[in-house]
Each structure stands twice: as structure tokens, then as C-alpha cells.
Write a structure and sequence with these properties.
- A 6-stranded mixed β-sheet has the order 5-19-20-3-21-22, with helices on both faces.
- By secondary structure, it is α/β, with parallel strands linked by helices.
- It has 36 helices and 33 strands.
- The chain has 6 domains: 203 residues, Rossmann fold, CATH 3.40.50; 191 residues, Ribosomal protein L1/L10, rRNA-binding domain (Ribulose 1,5 Bisphosphate Carboxylase/Oxygenase, 2-Layer Sandwich); 118 residues, Orthogonal Bundle (Helicase, Ruva Protein, domain 3); 76 residues, ABC transporter ATPase like fold; 180 residues, Rossmann fold, CATH 3.40.50.300; 129 residues, ABC transporter ATPase like fold (Up-down Bundle).
């Protein structure tokens, strides 16, 4: 280990995190001292051991110690990590890991809720928002008791009502004290969770559930002379329920009753009161009704808690809600209360009743059901029916064809509109004669046709098969809810406004626009409102600033968390941590600069420094040059990857690392090594791909040309529209035409130049497999020849073993004790589940007989445990296996294990495994490859290797288009398409297009400004491809 140099060596022991004997994964007994309260960058080749040291050792031990200090009860709710393989770590603080993973797949989670900004917005609208009538557009005024009396007396004579005081609405608690108090005051009956009770017989309430409690104030039958009595009852109810009163129909209102806009028609289950219409009653001194109320039908077994189902009662209920605070005198529109929960789409009190607070409804998309309008019915125009081998669908279409006079060889687009509607949505009342013959029996029937889409919707509702639901889900699409216009809230919430906007409209703003809007709010409020809002506004503005500082000002607060990239999610959590103001914490971050344009990088680094200056230790695994140069302390891990790494090559200040002759990172930082600019390939004007009028998300009717046969970079600030143009529009549109893909492209007019391509491949960062059984060998196809090679060994032939014997996925050769997993899961109840090595196979996944077959003392389990580098050397005489493994080496993955579980690979590693698979295929010369940030997780040295591979694909006549922020990649491109100029609403335009040199001259381009400086150093690593390879070696 290199000793700390300079001032670091003089640090007292208590000011460092001292690691001794770290051996996790490939670490070679590492000893290391890291300064506390500093910004520390871990760098080095991919697979060198950076994450093993930062996350699997330092963070794991810090988190484990913290969780271990908690009670056994608390520990059952927290995941406790395994103790890392390290002798000793001193000086640790409680640790927080901020990794690159999507924040939440929950559709109710948004940027606003994750950052808690929306919580403060709910509080702000509840306290200073002004309700407006949807009918008149005027502010809603309070109702007087006289208005309430007049409203009730306007009902038809003979209408039976209860006057209730809604004292508890959808809140948790036992309410024993309150019920006793109401009894003392003379009230005799309550309505609890939809049922009426004598107050002395009120049930014990479960404090874990939410409850609704109404005090029965009076029961009346409407007639003209009830004015005084009604006024007294309403005054009592308003006093009890803090300005609220309810008139509830004792049975279903007369059919002649006209609908009222102000009436809440929330239906409730439960029994009704007795049917005695007598108005006789006596009042207590404070006006409480003493009229008896009859019994209800009994509760069902599940009806004992708040919010649980009740048996359907004899009468449906309707309630007229009155408030002495907020009501429209013209339309009768009433808001019961203005509290923060009214603005929560995760609470039934505020959520839109139609979409349940999701803002969208799922409907089957006819374009997904009929993806290719040029296809005939016989050739599979109806996608859900195309894959079935059953004669049922063909015979159904035959019957429809005879009825509507078309043949199965008719193209879909040639069918009359009425016929298309009948096929998709049903024949209505028209009966059609169907003849079916399945080979065993034939029969006829005459009935209306259900319709393809109607049938799919019914099957989706009725099926209990998870597989069937997943298959049908492919044809659904999200459509904004027409009731709330996608704002997720009920009408009452959307009527409350500040400075003319409701909370949903502000949530739809980008963070940049929202920050400007909130800055201007104080000038639109009264003095009293400002006194109430000042602290809330301060919290909102600070959190918006933190999000802007980490380069996320293009996101909207309403953006669903599940649609964020890993880098965006990580930076959101980083901004949230700064907002929390914690001190004395150890933060470990994984490449926070991923997906960030150079323009925003400086703001991100300032954020990391601010986190450090709060009194925290910040450890960042990073390859970004600016981050390394700005660090207080740099740890360079290497010298190679996998078994060749795991050592500390250099550490200290950035200057100390650059001065180290052993540090590969230092040599790139000083310019001794570099990635040169190759000779440009000229574009061929006859081979171009053109997207016409793309308008998905923030694209502004954009038309873009991409020259084929070149290496093209699509660049621009985060949120500029790169992924929307390249993946959502171009890739999906071409994949639908060439690959029969089902995903619908973003809106655009057309794609020109498709005849130049025969294949399009999106090499993204999604996992190569969902289960631990998937690995690089199975994905790339190397495992099949490996199993066949083992089956061909003399010992295998003597025993009669087939290739299937060497698979851990099927019975025969695998260990049946662990079913080929190598580990057995032990449930520990309030402790984390423990995975123990299988005692039968000792973790090797195969049974003893299979492991007896060896070559050079290596069994199939030993091969899977080798690194790719080791396996490539082992199989150097077997070209079929060697060639596949060498493609993994060429993309910089020689350090991963042949049988490494797919779930343990990072997004960047998964992407390069996919790239290796494509490299192992025979090139057609007419393939378009699309890659989204392929340099994720790559060191300068690995980037040089990757570029050689990508340029080799282009040399074979193919086209490669990458979305990239790394200037070292951008400078080697033949062509650049730069989007922007800003993110979000400020983007979606082409700022510049051309060679890197021409883009560098474009004054509007942020990319050009940074590229200009990089191109000035273009000879740092030599000229041409040959010197680049020599430098990398």
C-alpha cells in the first residue's frame, strides 16, 4: 500500500477511517487510512475493486454496526448486511449509501413526494389557498345557518333526514374520552363507520384504523314550519363539528328530487335508521337530539375496523354537506374542509375518485392491437391473435368476413371504418353466424360479436393468471384521467388556488419554472398570508435550489419516480440528504455524474463539497476527471481488473496521485496517456436516416438527419430530449417496422431512409436476466458450447452424459438439495434471511457424479467460477468458446466471472455483455446500433477499449448512434446531433449538427463550448487508431 503523502500523513488517528485487512471479493488484504470530513474519490479500472472497498466493505460495516445497535424489534424492519471480510475498521460513522437505482416503481411516488416538496406545497395551499367556485369563478364564501335551513326546506315535503355533526372524519384513534364527553352533554346516538349505535353501546374502536364518527343531533321530516328547529339543530352541529354539518337522507331521496351540484354523493354501505317518520323529539340543554334511532343490520365479520367493508344495508345514503366556512351560494358547491390531506392524491380524502389518485387510467390502445395497418388479417394484423395456433381465431374472422363482406387477405387499412369498429369493439346488436371446427367436433352458433378490444378487457378483469395479465398488459396504455386532467386530485382540491394556480398546475411545472413561480408568490399574498407562509416557502425554495444544483431543474415535480434513470434517482436522493441537514454521517455515492452534462457538473461538485462542509465524510466512486481533480483525497485502486486488481496503487491528494508512476489514472490526468481523435469519416448524403416532425415529450416538431455508416453522438444537457428522439421515437418506430415490436413510438410524422437498414438493436442498461440463474455465459451463448464440450469428454461418453447433464437449470446433473442454486435460504423471522452454502454440493451447484467429469482437473463448476480472462486462456484451443469469451474481453469485461449471477452486474456491465453478444454475431453491414451512455462506470482506459470496439462496428459498414456526455467519446465521433439548448420545456430543439469541429464553433451549444477546449488537446494521446491502442496497452 502506498503511504499517505504530504499533510495527510500528519492527520491524527481519530480523524481517519482506518481499514485493516480488507479482503472482500478481489481485495488483497488492503490496509488504508481515509481522512474524515473530506471529499474522497475512489477511482480505478472497472472491476478493480473500488465498489468492493467503498460499498461492500466501508458502507456495509458502517450500516451493519448502526443496525446492530438497535433493538431486536427495530431490526426486524431493517435489512442488516453481512459482516464484510475485513479484520478491523476504526473511525466509522453511521453510513448512508446513495446508489444508482430507481427510487420507486410505485406509480404514486413522484419527484415532489420523494423530495418532500409536495408535502410543503400541500401545507401551503391548505393554509393560504383561496377556494374558488367552479361555477362562477369567484372565491367561495361561508354559508350562514339561514342558507343551510333554506337549502333543506327546499327539499320535497316528507323527505326524512338526519342532522349530523361530523366530529371525526377518516382519522385514527379510540375516541373513548370524546364519546364519554358527548354522552355527558346529552347526546344519545352516534354513527360510527357507517352504522348507528346507542351512545352507551358504542363499540371499542381500534386505534390502528381510521374512523368516521357523526353525532346524531336531530331527525326530521321536511315540512315548511321547521325553520326554527332546523336552525337550532344546525347551530348545535356546527358548534360540535367545528363549522361543519351534514343532512343525511334517512332513505333514498324521491326520484323527483333534482340533482344538486353541491351534493356529495359518496355512497356508503351499512344499515339505515328506523323507519318511524315521527318528528317528535326532545332536546338537551345544548340542543342535542334525544330521538331514538333504530338498529342496523349486523356487521359482517370484516366490518369491525375503520375503512373495512360493511354488509349492504337496506338503504343507500346520500349526504348534503354544509360548512359555515366554504360554500358557493350560486351552485351549492361546498368544500368540507381545507386541510393538507385534501391535496394528497395518496389519501382517499383528496384523491380523484375516478382514477384513484393515479392521474391516468389504463385503456387498451387500438394502435397496439393493430400495430401494422399494412398487414392483412391472415398475416397477423390483429397482434393478440397473431401468435395463436388455434383455429378459433381464423374461423371467427372468417365468420366476420362473410357477414361484413371482406376476406382475410384484405389489408387492415383497406377495411371500411365501420368494419374496423365492429372487429375491435363488437357488432352491437347485429348477430353473426359463427361456424367452429376444432378437428374433434364442429358446431354453429349465432350471436353478437364481442369485439377484440372488449374481449381483451374482459379477460384482463377476469383472469387470475399472472402470466396472462402480463401478456394482456402489453396492449394497455395510460391515458390521462378526464375527471382530473391528470392532476390526480378531486375537484374540491383543484378549486383552491394561490396566485391563480391550483397545486396540480404548479406540480406540472419544471423545477426551474417552479422556483421562479415560488419566488414571486410573496408579492401576490396579503400581509397576514405572508406571515403564515414565510417558513413553508423557505423550505420549498431551498429544496428546489438543491435539485437545481444537482442538475435536475428540467424535471417536473409531478414526474413519476419510476420513469427516472438511475443517475437522476441518485441525484434526487443526494439533494434530499442535503435538505435533511445531517452531520457526522458517512455518505457513499456511486458515480453521481452519470447522465449529467459537463455544464451541470460544476454545480454537482459544489453540492458534494457542501455535503462535506456540513461535517460529513463523502466517499465517491467516480471516473469523472473534474471530480478527481477537485477531491480532497484520491484512492486509485488497481492495477488491473478482477484477480489483477484489489490493491491500492496510489493515494493522497490529486497531485500526489498524478505524480505516482504506478497510477494509470495519474497518467491520464497528466496527459501522458489519452484518447486521440481519429480521422473523420465523411457522411454519405445518399445514406441518411431522417426523423420528421418528432413531437414526443418536449420535442418541438423536430426533424433530424442521422448519417448512416458513421459513429454518431447525440448530445445535449440533461432533459434536452435525447432519449425521446433516439429511443422513444427512432428506435421504437424502426423496431416496429423491422422487428415487429409492440411498443408504440412517440408521436412523429414518419421515418425516411428505412430501406438502408435490415436490423436495429438498442443495447441498453437493463439487466441481462431477472433471476440469479442467468449469467454472462448463458446470455452470450457460451454456456451451450461449454456444456457440449464437457459432454464430448471421454468420461462423459463412457457414462452416457448429454449436454443437459451439465445444466444447473434442469434435473439430472444439478444438485437437487439446492436445485442448482448453490445456496439454501433460511428464514430468521425478525432477523434478515440467511443464505447458507448448500451442504450437499458445497456451493458448486452440481451433484458429485457430474463434478467427477473434469479436464485438466477442472469441473464444470470450476469453469463457471473462472474469470473471463482465465476461461479464455483455458479454452484457447476451442475456437467456438474462445471467440465468444474474447468478445467479452474486448469490451473490458475480462474480470467478471463466467457464471456470475446476472443480478449482481451493474447497468454498464450488463450493457457491455449485450454489446459482446452482438460482436460475436456475423455483421450484416446494414445494422443500426443504439447505445445510451455506454461509458457508464468506465475508467479512461476502459473507454479507450470500448471506442475501438464501437469504431470497429462502423468499419464493418454498420451505423452506431450513442447518447453520451463523455467528451472523450464525443470528440471521436464522425457526426454530432446536439439537442437543447436547455432541459425540459427549454429543450427539444436541434442546437447544432455536424462534425465535432463545426459543433465546437456553435455559440448556442453548451456541448460545443466544452468540446472546443477538449479538441485543443486532441494530440495528447498521439494521432490515429494505432497509437490509441498502443497507449491503452
Amino acid at each position: 500500500m502506498t503511504e499517505p503523502s504530504g499533510p495527510q500523513a500528519a492527520r491524527p488517528e481519530s480523524r481517519v477511517i482506518a481499514i485493516r485487512g480488507a479482503r472482500e471479493h478481489n481485495l488483497k488484504n488492503v490496509d488504508l487510512d481515509i481522512p474524515r470530513d473530506a471529499l474522497v474519490v475512489f477511482t480505478g479500472l472497472s472491476g478493480s475493486g473500488k465498489s468492493s472497498l467503498a460499498f461492500d466493505t466501508i458502507y456495509a460495516e458502517g450500516q451493519r454496526r448502526y443496525v446492530e445497535s438497535l433493538s431486536a424489534y427495530a431490526r426486524q424492519f431493517l435489512e442488516m448486511m453481512q459482516k464484510p471480510d475485513v479484520d478491523q475498521i476504526d473511525g466509522l460513522s453511521p453510513a448512508i449509501s446513495i446508489e444508482q437505482k430507481t427510487t420507486s416503481k410505485n406509480p404514486r411516488s413522484t419527484v415532489g413526494t420523494v423530495t418532500e416538496i409536495y408535502d410543503y406545497m400541500r401545507l401551503l395551499w391548505a393554509r393560504v389557498g383561496v377556494p374558488y367556485s367552479p361555477a362562477t369563478g369567484l372565491p367561495i364564501e361561508s354559508q350562514t345557518v339561514s342558507q343551510m335551513v333554506d337549502r333543506v326546506l327546499a327539499l320535497p315535503a316528507g323527505t326524512r333526514l338526519y342532522i349530523l355533526a361530523p366530529v371525526v372524519q377518516d382519522r385514527k384513534g379510540e375516541y373513548r374520552k370524546e364519546i364519554a364527553d358527548w354522552m355527558k352533554r346529552g347526546f344519545q346516538r352516534l354513527k360510527i363507520d357507517g352504522r348507528y349505535y346507542e351512545i352507551a353501546q358504542a363499540p371499542a374502536l381500534d386505534k390502528k384504523f381510521k374512523h368516521n364518527i357523526d353525532v346524531v343531533v336531530d331527525r326530521i321530516v321536511v315540512r315548511p314550519d321547521l325553520g326554527q328547529r332546523l336552525a337550532e339543530s344546525f347551530e348545535t352541529a356546527l358548534h360540535l363539528a367545528d363549522g361543519m354539518a351534514v343532512a343525511e337522507f334517512a332513505d333514498t331521496p324521491p326520484s323527483s328530487l333534482p340533482p344538486e351540484r353541491g351534493r356529495s354523493t359518496a355512497k356508503r354501505s351499512g344499515g339505515g335508521p328506523d323507519d318511524d317518520p315521527s318528528p317528535a323529539r326532545s332536546l338537551s340543554s345544548d340542543g342535542a337530539s334525544r330521538r331514538s334511532v333504530g338498529a342496523d343490520p349486523p356487521l359482517s365479520a370484516e366490518g369491525k375496523g375503520g375503512g373495512r367493508k360493511l354488509l349492504k344495508g337496506a338503504h343507500a345514503e346520500e349526504r348534503l354537506i354544509f360548512s359555515e366556512k366554504f360554500a358557493c351560494p350560486v351552485s351549492g358547491f361546498t368544500i368540507a374542509e381545507i386541510e393538507p390531506r385534501l391535496f394528497s392524491f395518496n389519501n382517499p380524502f383528496g384523491a380523484c375518485p375516478k382514477c384513484g389518485g393515479l392521474g391516468v387510467e389504463q385503456h387498451i390502445d387500438a394502435d397496439l392491437v393493430i400495430p401494422d395497418k399494412d398487414a392483412t388479417l391472415r398475416k397477423g394484423a390483429i397482434a393478440p391473435w397473431a401468435k395463436s395456433s388455434s383455429p378459433y381465431y381464423t374461423q371467427t374472422l372468417d365468420a366476420l368476413g362473410k357477414h361484413y363482406r371482406f376476406t382475410l387477405d384484405t389489408k387492415w387499412k383497406a377495411l371500411p371504418k365501420k368494419t374496423q369498429e365492429a372487429i375491435l369493439y363488437g357488432s352491437g346488436e347485429d348477430e353473426i353466424r359463427f361456424v367452429y371446427d376444432d378437428g374433434l367436433r364442429s358446431y354453429q352458433t349465432k350471436k353478437p360479436f364481442e369485439g377484440v378490444i372488449t374481449n381483451l378487457e374482459r379477460r384482463f378483469r377476469e383472469t387470475e393468471s399472472e402470466w396472462a395479465r402480463e401478456e394482456l398488459q402489453k396492449y394497455f396504455t395510460d391515458v390521462p384521467c378526464d375527471a382530473c386532467a391528470g392532476h390526480r386530485l378531486k375537484p374540491e382540491a383543484l378549486c383552491v388556488k394561490i396566485a391563480g394556480l391550483h397545486v396540480g398546475e404548479v406540480a406540472q411545472m419544471s423545477i426551474r419554472r417552479a422556483a421562479e413561480w415560488f419566488a414571486g408568490v410573496p408579492g401576490r399574498l396579503s400581509k397576514q398570508q405572508n406571515e403564515i407562509a414565510v417558513r413553508v416557502l423557505k423550505e420549498i425554495r431551498e429544496r428546489l435550489k438543491f435539485l437545481s444544483d444537482v442538475g435536475l431543474d428540467y424535471l417536473t415535480l409531478a414526474r413519476a419516480s419510476g420513469t427516472l434513470s438511475g443517475g437522476e434517482s441518485q441525484r434526487i436522493r443526494l439533494a434530499s440528504q442535503i435538505g435533511s441537514g445531517l452531520t457526522g454521517v458517512l455518505y457513499v455515492l456511486d458515480e453521481p455524474s452519470i447522465g449529467l452534462h459537463q455544464r451541470d457538473n460544476a454545480r454537482l461538485l459544489e453540492t458534494l463539497k457542501r455535503l462535506r462542509d456540513l461535517g460529513n465524510t463523502v466517499i465517491v466512486v467516480e471516473h469523472d476527471e473534474d471530480a478527481i481533480r477537485l477531491a480532497d483525497h484520491v484512492v486509485d485502486v488497481g492495477p488491473g481488473a478482477g484477480v489483477h486488481g484489489g490493491r491500492i496503487v496510489a493515494q493522497g491528494t490529486p497531485a500526489a496521485v498524478m505524480a505516482s508512476p504506478h497510477s494509470l489514472t495519474g497518467r491520464y490526468l497528466t496527459g501522458a496517456l489519452g484518447i486521440p481523435v481519429p480521422e473523420r469519416r465523411p457522411p454519405d448524403p445518399r445514406r441518411t436516416l431522417k426523423v420528421v416532425n418528432a413531437r414526443g415529450n418536449n420535442l418541438k416538431n423536430l426533424s433530424a438527419e442521422i448519417p448512416l455508416g458513421l459513429f454518431t453522438c447525440v448530445t445535449g444537457v440533461s432533459g434536452g430530449g435525447k432519449s425521446t428522439l433516439l429511443v422513444d421515437t427512432l428506435y421504437r418506430a424502426i423496431a416496429r417496422r423491422l422487428n415487429n415490436a409492440s411498443e408504440a413510438p412517440a408521436p412523429h410524422d414518419r421515418i425516411e431512409g428505412l430501406h438502408h437498414l435490415d436490423k436495429i438493436i438498442d443495447i441498453d442498461q437493463s439487466p441481462i436476466g431477472r433471476t440469479p440463474r442467468s449469467n454472462p455465459a448463458t446470455y452470450t451463448g457460451a454456456f451451450t458450447p461449454i456444456r457440449e464440450w464437457f459432454a464430448g469428454l471421454p468420461e462423459s461418453k463412457a457414462r452416457g452424459y448429454e449436454p443437459g447433464r451439465f445444466s444447473f437449470n434442469v434435473k439430472g446433473g444439478r444438485c437437487e438439495a439446492c436445485q442448482g442454486d448453490g445456496v439454501i435460504k433460511i428464514e430468521m423471522h425478525f432477523l434478515p434471511d440467511v443464505y447458507v452454502t448448500c451442504d450437499t454440493c458445497k456451493g458448486k451447484r452440481y451433484n458429485r457424479e457430474t463434478l467427477d467429469v473434469t479436464f485438466k482437473q477442472k469441473s464444470i463448476a470450476d469453469i463457471l467460477d473462472m474469470t473471463v480472462d482465465e476461461a479464455a486462456d483455458f479454452f484457447k484451443a476451442v475456437p467456438r468458446i474462445r471467440d465468444i469469451l474474447q468478445t467479452l474481453q474486448r469490451v473490458g469485461l475480462g474480470y467478471i466471472h463466467v457464471g456470475q449471477q446476472a443480478t449482481t452486474l451493474s447497468g454498464g456491465e450488463a450493457q457491455r455483455v449485450k454489446l459482446a453478444k452482438e460482436l460475436s454475431k456475423r455483421a450484416t453491414g446494414r445494422t443500426l446500433y443504439i447505445l445510451d451512455e455506454p461509458t457508464t462506470g468506465l475508467h479512461f482506459h476502459d473507454v479507450a477499449k470500448l471506442l475501438d470496439v464501437l469504431h470497429e462496428l462502423v468499419e464493418s459498414g454498420n451505423s452506431v448512434v450513442v447518447i453520451e456526455h463523455n467528451l472523450e467519446v464525443i470528440k471521436t465521433a464522425d457526426w454530432i446531433v446536439d439537442l437543447g439548448p436547455e432541459g425540459g420545456d427549454g429543450g427539444g430543439e436541434i442546437v447544432a449538427a455536424g462534425t465535432p469541429e463545426s459543433v465546437a464553433k456553435e455559440k448556442r451549444s453548451y456541448t460545443g463550448a466544452f468540446l472546443k477546449a477538449v479538441l485543443a488537446r486532441k494530440n495528447a494521446g498521439g494521432a490515429g487508431k494505432k497509437k490509441r491502442i498502443e497507449a491503452a496497452e
